[in-house]
Amino acid sequence: MLRLTRLLPWWWPPPAVAFPVKNLGLRKVASGVSSPGSASPRALNIFDRDLKRKQKNWAARQPEPMKFDYLKEEVGSRIADRVYDVARDFPLALDVGCGRGYIAQHLNKETVGKFFQTDIAENALKNILETEIPTVSVLADEEFLPFRENTFDLVVSSLSLHWVNDLPRALEQDTDEIQVNYPGMFELMEDLQGMGESNCAWNRKALLHRDTMLAAAAVYGEMYRNEDGSVPATYQIYYMIGWKYHDSQARPAERGSATVSFGELGKINDLMSQGKKSQ
């Protein structure tokens, strides 16, 4: 099965809960959680950032950019859900590599007071989706953000960091998988181009011959074709989050301050069972 790795929103590993299959024309989305993988080595200067900017600008100029938004919409919604899980509000938030604003549209002004949205592609910022949160659009490369330290209460990013050349090992978490079933390999490639997700590695091949593409499509279809004739592609999503401490959040107790041991906690079920029998 084709695995598209290093699609990196920021958040902690999500719960292992599948969501219903969605009909997206001939594209169908399903979900699951993958098993832990081995750590990826840090790499420098793998990607041509200028080419990635051109790819994203091209995608944003298409007459129907929303046609290819299904994956980014889904991941943006999942990240927003995890923001709501945090018992506090965030006066000032930053979305790194926001695209058309796939996270902000799922949040409300009670949770986020003001949202700075940055992207490397100016055309994406021109097509920002509407949200009730006051927003500021900033044209900036994810590798060179123009903000001082300790500026934001919350920083999020969705499906953007996988094209950044240098990522710390802290991004290595257990992962979420989203499987999309395509009519064929060429439809998958068309959608990746429409998302602005075409390969921009410096060592990419400039041209693939037609016969090579046809042979690859035939082999892929033969090996992985579903019963309905579609072929699956698995997007592997990495999640993590960091946010600034706030006085409204509970602080962890000091080490050694516990008054009950874990051994005693293990007896609670037995005591409750005995209490029910005596009633």
Automatic annotation (TrEMBL):
GO MF terms held by the record: S-adenosylmethionine-dependent methyltransferase activity
Superkingdom assignment: Eukaryota
Pfam families, per database record: Methyltransf_11
Instruction: Write the record's keywords in alphabetical order, separated by commas.
Output: Methyltransferase, Signal, Transferase
Its GO biological process annotations read: methylation; mitochondrial respiratory chain complex I assembly
Gene Ontology terms: cellular component:
mitochondrion
Start and end of every Methyltransferase type domain?
94-172
Keyword presence, Transferase:
yes
Q: Which Gene3D superfamilies match?
A: Vaccinia Virus protein VP39
Signal peptide positions (record) = 1-18
Q: Which family does it belong to?
A: Belongs to the methyltransferase superfamily.
- Name the record gives this protein: Arginine-hydroxylase NDUFAF5, mitochondrial
**Annotated organism of origin:** Camelus dromedarius (Dromedary)
